[in-house]
Write a structure and sequence with these properties.
A hairpin with a 4-residue loop joins β1 and β2. The protein starts with 23 loop residues before the first helix and ends in a 5-residue tail after the last strand. A five-stranded antiparallel sheet has the order 1-2-9-4-7, covered by helices on one side. Strands 3-10-11 form a three-stranded antiparallel sheet, with no helix packed on it. It has a three-stranded antiparallel sheet with strand order 6-5-8, with no helix packed on it. The N terminus is likely disordered. The protein is of the alpha+beta class. It contains two helices and eleven strands; from the N terminus they run ααβββββββββββ.
Length: 196
């Protein structure tokens, strides 16, 4: 398996049932912000680049008044809510309590990016035979972007909650989960939008 590593800057996974969708006015405002950022660098209809997705999540992370009132904390699993659902990309808001993680997962061929708006996370990925397991601290204000074959594990190893914004293009159609074993990553399951 070929792994596409993310550039050094600050991804989504399973969680409990999403909360009610954002109010129409808020959803419209977020979509306009997201679309304006995305179209500044992309042609309509083509998947957005990781750089364009990074710009989307960075811009939204800098506007907490647009989403902070939606955030919920769940002690059972990470909480999440989709903020934008366009044909070419989607944006998710996720909260993380200490100890919550995604496990190793891919993004079903979608490009992606995430920004830590509040708190701090840790990202694990494989850096190839020479580098082995890479562990990155992802503090607030950091955004990470990745290509369509990227596999990683994101977790909250800090003592307080974290809030992140995630963008995917095209919108997620599936996600596979992996176990890290001595020989590398082994695919264990797959889920689709019906589980989100």
């Amino acid at each position: 398996m070929s792994l596409n590593l993310a550039p050094d800057e600050p991804a989504a996974a399973q969680a409990p049932t999403p909360a009610a969708t954002a109010a129409p006015a808020l959803a419209s405002a977020l979509a306009r912000t997201s679309r304006a950022t995305a179209t500044a660098t992309e042609e309509a209809g083509a998947p957005l680049t990781p750089s364009a997705l990074r710009a989307v999540v960075r811009e939204l992370a800098e506007q907490p008044d647009q989403w902070i009132h939606l955030v919920r904390l769940s002690t059972e699993e990470r909480w999440y809510q989709r903020l934008v659902a366009d044909d070419d990309h989607e944006v998710w808001l996720i909260s993380w309590l200490p100890g919550q993680s995604t496990g190793f997962h891919d993004h079903g061929g979608s490009r992606g990016a995430f920004a830590v708006a509040l708190g701090e996370l840790e990202e694990l990925s494989l850096g190839g035979p020479e580098q082995g397991l890479l562990i990155r601290r992802v503090p607030a204000g950091t955004a990470r972007a990745f290509g369509p074959e990227y596999v990683h594990d994101v977790r909250n190893t800090a003592s307080g909650p974290a809030v992140t914004l995630h963008a995917y293009s095209p919108p997620l159609g599936s996600m596979a989960h992996y176990d890290l074993r001595a020989g590398g990553l082994v695919r264990t399951s797959e889920e689709g939008p019906e589980q989100w």
